Amino acid sequence: MRKLTLALLSGAYICLSLITGLLVWQNGGGVGAGVAAFLGAAGLLFSVQGLIARSSLQGQLAGEIDQVREAHLILMAEIEKIQAKLTDVVETAAQDAMRRSEEIYSEVQMLEDVVQQIGERLEAQLSEQVQRAEAAVAVVSPRASALMQTVRAALDAGRVDLYLQAVVSLPQRRTQYYESFTRLRDETGRVLMPAEFLSVAEPGGLVAAIDNLLLFRCVQIVRRLAGQDRKVGIFCNISLASLGDEDFFPQFMEFLGANRDLADSLIFELGQSAFNARGSVELRNMAKLADLGFRFSIDKVSDLNVDFLDLARADVGFVKLSAPMLIEQLEDHDGHLTLRSLPHLQATDYAALARRHGVELVVEKVESERQVIDILDLDIGFGQGHLFGEPRPIRDAVLAETEAPAAFIQAALRRRVG
User: Fold this and answer.
1) What is the per-residue pLDDT across 68-97, written as a single tens digit (0 to 9) for each?
2) Model pLDDT for residues 208-236, shown as the tens digit of each residue
3) Whose CA is closest to 169, among 415, 410, 380?
4) Contact (CB, 8 A) for 276 and 307
5) What is the pLDDT of residue 361?
6) Angle at 363 between CA 359 and CA 366, to 5 degrees
7) Which of 312, 321, 316 is nearest to 347 (CA)?
8) Could you tell me if 350 and 374 are in contact, meaning their C-beta atoms sit under 8 angstroms apart?
9) Residues 6+ apart with CB under 8 A from 365
10) Digit-coded pLDDT (tens) for 325-356
């Protein structure tokens, strides 16, 4: 096709050259036949050169097109190879995924079987433990129930005794305070110790009633001592349950509000663990007592690393330390006496640190003179223990004078005893 086109163009150019030479010869105004033939030949030459150039360009383009076509074919072949490889990869991945899914499913089934077996064993063990617990309750419940009835009867009948133990100043050993203790008596006159009656009083909700009766007795004893010109204070135990009892505490506050002139003589005492476990209700009610001018004491201390600033903010004026625990903490480091739990502080500075925050230390459970010597070396100002006097009951005559009104007792019991 391309050769035919060139032949036609060549013929056209030859005809055009002959016509041009003829026209020049006829109308050239004297131009000779030779010149006309020259001009026609020149035109023919130029035409032939143009055809040759055009033919060369078309040939070059055709070659490039052929190269592009070959490259395209090569590319298509590579794409087909890549597609074949991708197909192989996808099939392999699908096979691996299927195999792994089967393995995982098998492992999950095995785990489910193991869990089921463990669950069955635990259920059997739990059932056995429940049966044992029920058997134990069946044995203990009658005894606990009988003790609960004894405690209720003692509270209802007012068989609540008040014991006082002296807290003395050191080294003078002059009585400055008393700590009060509650003892209950059954119908036969047998004395029930706190470890015994509290075991049922706390779960039975009777602690608030006991605290109420103890408070009444303490207030009356303080007034009796004040009437004899004996200005001493009394440590009166109060439970965390009473501080958090919204039914009991308003009555407690009402009674103290009527006796707020005794704020300097009544110190409410609770254990270190109870103090640390206070919630928002207990904090608020302790603040109400402090607003009336009453102070607090912390006993049953097991950790000497006490934040005295925090105690001062809570209106705590006393901290009681057990003599055996305190002396067991003493260590000699290069001639300096230190406390094991506070090695950075000299033991002789511990009481001074507390005193700087308005807190006095009291060493309780003092049983020997040797302990007194160690206590004096630590500059502690107060001691309590059998060496200075055992807890003694208030005489019946005094108790009769300070007997709580029946309405007061019943009001305390009605809220707690069903």
Assistant:
1) 777 777 877 777 788 778 777 777 777 776
2) 778 888 888 888 888 888 777 677 899 99
3) 380
4) no
5) 97
6) 170
7) 321
8) no
9) 322, 323, 324, 384, 385
10) 999 999 988 778 899 999 889 999 999 999 99
Query: Could you tell me how many residues make up the chain?
Result: 418
pTM over 0.90: no
Looking at residue 189, what is its pLDDT? Answer: 86
pLDDT of residue 16: 60
C-alpha to C-alpha distance for 251 and 229, rounded to whole angstroms = 29
- Supply the Cα-derived Rg of the chain in whole angstroms: 55
Distances (CA, A) of 327 to 103, 215, 382: 66, 33, 15
The token pair at 289 is: 């007592």
As a whole number of angstroms, the distance between CA 328 and CA 154 comes to 40
Low-confidence ranges of the chain (pLDDT < 70): 1-59, 61-62, 64, 97, 101-141, 229, 395-418
The sign one gets for the Cα dihedral 85, 88, 92, 94 is positive
CA distances from 40 to 29, 46, 328, 376 (A): 16, 10, 138, 146
> Taking the CB of residue 217, how many other CB atoms lie within 10 A of it?
24
* pLDDT given at position 138: 47
Amino acid 402: pLDDT: 47
pLDDT value of position 126: 43
What pLDDT score does 154 carry?
84
Three-state SS string over the chain comes to CHHHHHHHHHHHHHHHHHHHHHHHHHHCCCCCHHHHHHHHHHHHHHHHHHHHHHHHHHHHHHHHHHHHHHHHHHHHHHHHHHHHHHHHHHHHHHHHHHHHHHHHHHHHHHHHHHHHHHHHHHHHHHHHHHHHHHHHHHHHHHHHHHHHHHHHHHHHHCCEEEEEEEEEECCCCCEEEEEEEEEEECCCCCEECHHHHHHHHCCCCCHHHHHHHHHHHHHHHHHHHHHCCCCCEEEEECCHHHHCCCCCHHHHHHHHHCCHHHCCCEEEEEEHHHHHCCCHHHHHHHHHHHHCCCEEEEECCCCCCCCHHHHHHCCEEEEEEEHHHHHHCEEEECCEEEECCEEEEEHHHHHHHHHHCCCEEEEECCCCHHHHHHHHHCCCCEEECCCCCCCEECCHHHHHHCCCCHHHHHHHHHCCCC
